[in-house]
Amino acid sequence: MPAKKRTWRRQPSLAPAPPAPSAPPAGRRQPPDAHDHGSVVNAALYRDGIRVSTPDSLAETFRQLREHPDGMAWIGLHRPTEAELHSLAEEFDLHPLSIEDALEAHQRPKLERYGETLFVVLRAARYLDAAEEVDFGELHVFVGHDFVITVRHGAAPDLSAVRRRMEETPELLSLGPEAVLYAILDAVVDGYAPVVSGVQTDIDEIETEVFRGDPEVSRRIYELSREVVEFQRATRPLIGMLNGLMAGFTKYRTDEELQRYLRDVADHVTHTSERVDGFRQALTDILTVNATLVTQQQNAEMRALAVAGFEQNEEIKKISAWAAILFAPTLVGTIYGMNFDNMPELQWAWGYPFAIALMAIVCGGLYVVFKKRDWL
Predict the structure, then answer these.
(1) Helix, strand or coil for residue 367?
(2) Would you give the distance in Å from CA 314 to the centre of its chain?
């Protein structure tokens, strides 16, 4: 996008609006007379880095910009309607594909050029301390030679802070729409720092829970891994986007100071992307360690069950052996206890000693056999 070489004279305010709007310049169509739907968060016109007007509707913004072509319009929208986006497309000659993307969230981060208009999609992020999770937002930015349009889906980023920063540094804002794009990129990238810190804290807590044996840690690892993957998708494309912008510095005569700022943003993006890649690898390692520890715990439990089963079997063998030993005299006593008249040894003088000896011999023999088999 070519940088405009302007010789602006600082003016405190715009001239009063005439009773009837003037005819639109060639190349721009008159916007439809539709009422705004409340999605305009902020709209302002700037000249030489100074806010000179704050229109209360899109139609008024278009009219004032046509009357003062040396100004720059900065329009901020939050979840605009289709009618509002088509109104912007007619006024600023925005490509239909970019309007289609801006209507639908869940776009990947990208930078595309349609003629003299840049279309940028960014994924902002913020860390929610209470829920200990990452909340992602989406921001679409249209950058032309005299306008910047931001379409925000989600709570992040806080573009009001970006606007305040730029208005407090008119020398930077006077560089035009490219400077606004830089400020937005810088705000989105700076917003990643608290997220990186929060995710690092979560990973440290998960490591503690893993070695403490928390049964819920696997679920937390999975949920955090999904957030890190989403974070990676938000940050990694920015490297290529910023490299593309820097490659066009000479072609589009980007201001040298702005070049330095964009290089600084690129450095921060690279650092953040490397940290996020490290998070993903760390979570993969933690998941592996957790699986190993769970397997070891399961093996220990199985060994404990096996030992308990072995000990139980030993007790059962002892009980069975003693039951067999005690069964022998019971059998002999039962036989000799039957009161039949015709039974051998009933009238035998050695019958009682013989029965006792038989019981002792049988019991002793069984004891020796079970002892040799380690049942006793």
Answers:
(1) helix
(2) 55
Task: Give Cα separations from 62 to 37, 67, 142, 146, 190 (angstroms).
Answer: 16, 9, 15, 11, 32
The angle, 0 to 180 degrees and rounded to 10, between the axes of the packed helices 192-212 and 177-190 is 20
Q: How far apart are CA 198 and CA 131, in angstroms?
A: 11
CA–CA dist 37, 41 (Å, integer): 11
Place of tokens 């690092």: 200
C-alpha distances out from residue 292 to 210, 212, 297, Å:
10, 14, 9
Q: Please tell me the distance from the alpha carbon of residue 202 to that of residue 301, in angstroms, as a whole number.
A: 30
**DSSP structural state of residue 128:** E
* Kind and range of the H or E run holding 48: none
Phi then psi for residue 57, to 5 deg, are: -155, 165
Torsions phi, psi for 259 (to 5 deg):
-60, -40
The H or E element containing residue 154 is none
Residue closest to 177 by CA, chosen among 65, 97, 338, 323: 65
Are the beta carbons of 99 and 87 closer than 8 angstroms? no
pLDDT tens sequence for the chain (376 residues): 443 333 222 233 333 333 334 444 444 434 433 334 458 888 999 999 999 999 888 888 888 888 888 889 999 998 888 888 998 999 898 999 999 988 887 888 999 999 889 999 999 999 998 888 899 989 999 999 899 999 998 777 888 899 999 999 999 999 989 999 999 999 999 999 999 999 999 999 998 988 888 888 888 898 999 999 999 999 999 998 888 888 877 776 778 888 888 899 999 999 999 999 999 999 999 988 888 888 888 888 888 888 888 888 888 888 888 888 888 788 777 777 776 667 777 677 777 787 788 888 888 888 888 888 878 7
Taking each helix axis from N to C terminus, what angle separates 256-336 and 177-190, rounded to the nearest 10 degrees? 20
